[in-house]
Amino acid sequence: MSIGDFVDDLTARAEALGQGLTGGFGTRTVRLGVTGLSRAGKTVFITQLVANLLERGRMSGLRAVAEGRILAAFLQPQPDDTVPRFDYETHLAALTGPDPHWPESTRAVSELRLSLRVAPSGLLAGLGGERRVNIDIVDYPGEWLLDLGLMDMDFGRWSREVMTRIAARAEAAGYLKALQAIDPAAPFDEVQAKSLSGHYDSYLKAARAAGYSDCGPGRFLLPGELEGSPVLTFAPLPRTEAAPRGSVWHEMARRYEAYKSKVVRPFFRDHFARIDRQVVLVDVLGAIHSGPRAVEDLRGAMEAVLGAFRPGRPGWLAGLLGGRRVERILFAATKADHLHHSQHARLTRFLAALLRSARDRADFAGADTAAMAIAALRATVEESHERGGEVVDCVRGRLLAGGREAALFPGELPESPAAMLAEAHGGAEHWLDADYAVMAFAPARLSLRPGDGPPHIRLDRAAEFLIGDLL
């Protein structure tokens, strides 16, 4: 460790100690990471969590609320001056305004600080005054976590794995055709590289729309200020035996390594390595609707994401994390309001089974984990209808397309998820026993009572698992 690193470490420790001794029983600050792949509902989750902690009438599952110990909640400026603020007010207006609609999805890292004034409980109640708990909520795309796997691969291995994965996908036809005109050993040409990278980017967008989860590198879909830069102008290539310096292969490999060193590593160093608690949101229903291949793809993607939560992982990540670890991780199957409540337990079991092998292999170094079915914003109501002489449990909501009201029976999830997961792992094209419908619902028009946040499903229980011990 250099002198500069040593001084920085001492300064950080002193600041943390000073922060912990501020106020009656002190101030505790926790960094809560919120991530998930595209369409999992990160923006809605954060907006709803904050709205329901500011107006706590629907948060009885959070014990500190049930006991009346949260005295006040208020937003503060986020502590990181170079990180954009999560646009809570705009997102809340989108969800609860006169013409409610889903807000813009996560495209980069953002942050929000919510502070709670909390009265002590139990034996501590008579020993001192209230405490402050700062919750620094960090929003970042799950696709960026998938990049973790790149750190252990060179360009050749990454190319082989991608080419194997996409060979049978219709969405990759345009890219595979463009590859036919490429000689990896030929001299590098920038115009050709931009064209090929554009074809690969188009494939990634089409694959994501088709329900696939392994759409990376992550910044290709969410480039931000890096759009058009060399670190985002590369693509996987067929294996070549000889690739001299200055060739297409050589330059693509160089840019791939630059992506890892200048994009992936700084993200983990500056953001991920500082997370204390984590929510991983998973669109299980969307994957089931897309079919067995999408479910198996989601399983593999979640396994890759879980690799980021292994503080014992050897190599560069262990060096970034040091002795720090994520203390609690919640895996949440979102959009539970698309199912009748009688199926929520099955959705939770499916999520737990989907992640089982990854969780068994991951060394969480003592971290607490949980799986849960939630709806951060409830957009439907439940109904029962007779069909073919049988009563079926449905959900009714306002359709995103056209705005009309409609009732949906999405199909019943199996009591045990084993058979479905076996079909997915075995490469089945379609589900053998059933089809699963999914509709895109718009947010419901709301009329909220004073003190109530917007309706949800188990958001209070999610908050209890994530931060309840701090309150």
Calculate the mean pLDDT score and round it.
85
Rg, alpha carbons: 24 Å
- Helix-and-strand structural type: alpha/beta
Q: How many domains, as an integer?
A: 2
CATH architecture of the largest domain: 3-Layer(aba) Sandwich
Alpha-carbon distance between the two ends: 36 Å
- Fill in the CATH topology of the largest domain: Rossmann fold
Number of strand segments: 10
> Helical region count?
17
Query: Which percent range fits the helix content?
Result: 25-40%
Protein name: YcjX family protein
Organism: Albidovulum marisflavi
What does this structure look like?
With 471 residues, the protein is α/β, with parallel strands linked by helices. The protein folds into two domains: 26-140 and 278-378 and 447-470, Rossmann fold (3-Layer(aba) Sandwich); 146-267, no CATH class. It is built from 17 helices and ten strands. The protein has helices at residues 3-20, 42-54, 63-66, 88-96, 142-146, 155-166, 173-179, 190-209, 218-221, 248-270, 284-290, 292-306, 316-321, 344-354, 356-361, 418-425, 459-467, and strands spanning 27-36, 70-76, 110-118, 131-139, 277-282, 328-333, 368-373, 380-387, 390-398, 405-408. A seven-stranded mixed beta sheet has the order 2-3-4-1-5-6-7, with helices on both faces. Strands 8-9-10 form a three-stranded antiparallel beta sheet, with no helix packed on it. Helix 7 runs antiparallel to helix 8. Residues 1-25 have low confidence and may be disordered. Pfam families: DUF463. This is YcjX family protein. InterPro entries: YcjX-like.
